[in-house]
Amino acid sequence: xxxxxxxxxxxxxxxxxxxxxxxxxxxxxxxxxxxxxxxxADPQLWDDPQVAQQVTSALSxxxxxxxxxxxxxxxxxxxEVMVELAEAEDPQSAQELLSEARTECVSIRRxxxxxxxxxxxxxxxDQREAVVTIRSGAGGVDAADFAEMLLRMYLRWAEKNGxxxxxxxxSYAEEAGLKSATFEVNAPFAFGRLSVEAGTHRxxxxxxxxxxxxxxxxxxxxEVVPLIEQTDAIEIPEAEIKVDVFxxxxxxxxxxxxxxxxxxxxxxxxxIVVSMQNEKSQLQNRAAALRVLQSRLLLxxxxxxxxxxxxxxxxxxxxxxxxxxxxxxxxYQMVKDLRTGYEEGNTANVxxxxxxxxxxxxxxxxxxxxxxxxx
Length: 375
Known about the structure:
Residues 247-263 form the Prokaryotic-type class I peptide chain release factors domain. It is found in: Cytoplasm. With 375 residues, the protein is an alpha+beta fold. It has helices at 6-24, 26-40, 49-86, 91-120, 140-160, 190-194, 282-313, 347-351, 356-374; strands at residues 130-136, 165-172, 178-185, 199-206, 215-226, 241-246, 262-267, 272-276, 323-328, 334-337, 343-344. The chain folds into three domains: 6-120, Up-down Bundle (Methane Monooxygenase Hydroxylase, Chain G, domain 1); 130-230 and 315-373, Alpha-Beta Plaits; 238-310, Double Stranded RNA Binding Domain (2-Layer Sandwich). Helix 1 (6-24) packs antiparallel against helix 3 (49-86) and helix 1 runs parallel beside helix 4.
């Protein structure tokens, strides 16, 4: 333990914690908690359950945010006390205390790094829940199978992080896999975190569908949009929407519903199409489809606004390439993000939802790219 400089480590932890606290605006968080607590205490709030849910969810999120910051400060104080106590103990007890203090330092540093990433999520819609759509691309049946692999990967990621999800639509391919799938991730900052996953994903492997065992490259696209809120007020005239109804079906065309409850909604001015079939009634599917359509139009409006800003600011190199990540299962094992350079050799872990390191690297890369664009 003599080689570990606790004084320097504690000073650095305090400095990182202080910089995060400054950027996080502790006073603003405390004001928000006070305002939300006052609203939550109003007996009339529950006259509108949806608004009440939004208020209580926002309050819980702000309280958790404040607790993360204050608890880490307290843990740094505790480590300093442990090191001081070790100086007065016998060698064996001192060794145990210092070992515990070093382990705690490692844990605190990891938590601070996670908090640093959250601080970078300061975009207009980053705090929102997310709607994710996965579509198979070039590669035939392998691409459809890859789309299904990606769906499982993201659902497992959400499960591991304790984020509730809701599957909205699945369109199965004829032989295997998925043509497309859409789902919600219902957690604060889900959009901010998952938005760095948007783009084209590539899979290289020996195709299980090729009887000659040849290597196959296939592609799938991931789209991430923020879930709209009532305050967004995206009004869509009925004349701009075409609604088709059809019968829900599962793999192989097996009927899972005996009524025409599935809904396909087309926004005529933009050509955006949304399909929903996972709810039990046509009305529920129509409401879910409209919500996702509004979310996509919200993001489209934001992209148009950003495009205008870029035009005024001059040409800035594109932030996203057509292909953002490769999953190579043959002739070697590697998942690599082509934007950040981050890679992992444990492909099974990544495809089982081990995405946090990729997402964190993507958030840091995006923040540095935005900073470079402003310079």
